[in-house]
Design goal:
The complex is a heterodimer of chains A (117) and B (245). Chain A has 117 residues and is mainly α. Chain A has four helices and no strands. The model of chain A has no long low-confidence stretch (mean pLDDT 93). Chain B has two domains: 6-104, Roll (Ubiquitin-like (UB roll)), CATH 3.10.20.30; 107-241, Orthogonal Bundle (Fumarate Reductase Iron-sulfur Protein, Chain B, domain 2), CATH 1.10.1060.10. In chain B, strands 2-1-5-3-4 form a five-stranded mixed β-sheet. A two-stranded antiparallel sheet of chain B has the order 6-7. The chains are: A mainly alpha (117), B alpha+beta (245).
């Protein structure tokens, strides 16, 4: 496979990732908003948050998927904006955006693990 | 609406770094924008360069930017685009190099049709040979209906000149080339499906389309390139996800 074909394949994969993460986010953001509204009723406390999340695998998996989807989706979206507005394009830029997306996701995942443990 | 006795026409003169020249053209009943341009060239300034051929909306060569919007000048009545003050602004088509005055260079537009593999590649008869039998394509089949929807494009470049993504990314194939590719992806007689989908994928292809639909809104033939591009995206999405490419 030559370089340009490989690049086009990479761009297509980024697009597919953005569409799939969008589908995940549609569900995750809804759950997130409902949880926020539920959680703040009657005041918000650390005990309450830990009570909900500590030791619950279901919530851990939910937040790991949510953070990964949000990080990747945001970075790929910013990549498109940067390409169209300031002409930032190319393999190097793509890898940088991917790294930024994964780093953002890693912060969220670290927080989720912290609350689970 | 009160009609002005004469039209105040600003016409782009020169190349990319040219400017507007002003002409007063008598307003007439049922006058088209192409009539106005022809009047300027024949009566006022024979050096004006512009392009037309059929004058009846068949050839697609007279497209220009009329009051900021790409249109076929032969099928645009002046009264539909001017206010009571009779002001008309004419530029060459946007997103293309300017040759001179109102003539844009369509070479990049047609080059992209080639890049999008916009020519039919017979599956049963390589190298242009005549197939042994007629292909049977049921008129009601989904693929046939998808191909029919986009087949009437005459390559006027109005969609290309109206596309924001072309303006942002000069490599972007544009609506017409991908509309053509989609008709061929749906042509059951065609044998180059894989290569064509490869050619229209990625940032220079369908994946940069924002679906803002200026192409569909402005197509003088009422075609829907935006839906054609969405079809390419859909096909590539499943092919990529299911490992079919």
């Amino acid at each position: 496979m030559n370089r340009s074909r490989q690049a086009i394949r990479g761009q297509t994969h980024l697009w597919v990732v953005q569409r799939v993460t969008a589908m995940l986010l549609a569900v995750a953001v809804t759950v997130h908003l409902v949880t926020i509204i539920g959680a703040v009723r009657g005041g918000l406390s650390a005990t309450e948050i830990l009570g909900r999340l500590q030791g619950h695998e279901g919530w851990l998996i939910f937040y790991v998927v949510f953070a990964l989807a949000a990080g990747l989706h945001g970075a790929i979206g910013l990549r498109a904006i940067a390409a169209e507005t300031i002409g930032l394009r190319g393999r190097g830029a793509d890898l940088a955006w991917l790294a930024a997306g994964l780093a953002t996701a890693a912060f969220g995942i670290r927080a989720a693990i912290g609350l689970y443990a | 609406m009160a009609e002005a006795a004469s039209l105040k026409v600003s016409v782009w003169r020169g190349g990319e770094d040219g400017g507007f020249a002003r002409y007063d053209v008598p307003a007439r009943a049922n006058q088209t924008v192409l009539d106005v341009v022809t009047h300027i060239q024949r009566e006022l300034d024979p050096s004006l360069a512009y392009r037309f051929a059929c004058r009846v909306g068949m050839c697609g060569s007279c497209a220009m930017t009329v009051n900021g919007r790409a249109r076929w000048t032969c099928r645009t009545h002046v009264r539909k685009v001017v206010d009571a003050d009779g002001a008309l602004e004419l530029r060459p088509l946007a997103n293309l190099p300017v040759i001179r005055d109102l003539a844009a260079d369509l070479a990049p537009f047609f080059d992209k049709w080639q890049r999008a593999k916009g020519s039919f590649q017979p599956k049963d008869a390589p190298d242009g040979a005549v197939p042994e039998d007629f292909a049977v394509v049921p008129p009601g089949s989904k693929a046939r209906r998808e191909a029919d929807a986009g087949i009437e494009c005459i390559g006027c470049a109005v969609c290309y000149a109206s596309c924001d993504v072309v303006a942002w990314n000069p490599d972007y194939l544009g609506p017409a080339a991908m509309n053509r590719a989609w008709t061929l992806v749906n042509d059951v007689r065609d044998g180059a499906r894989g290569e064509r989908l490869e050619a229209v994928a990625g940032d220079a292809g369908c994946h940069s389309c924002h679906s803002t639909q200026s192409c569909t809104e402005r197509c003088p033939k009422n075609l829907d390139p935006s839906s054609a591009i969405a079809g390419l995206k859909r096909t590539l999405f499943w092919d990529t996800l299911l490992g079919r490419r």
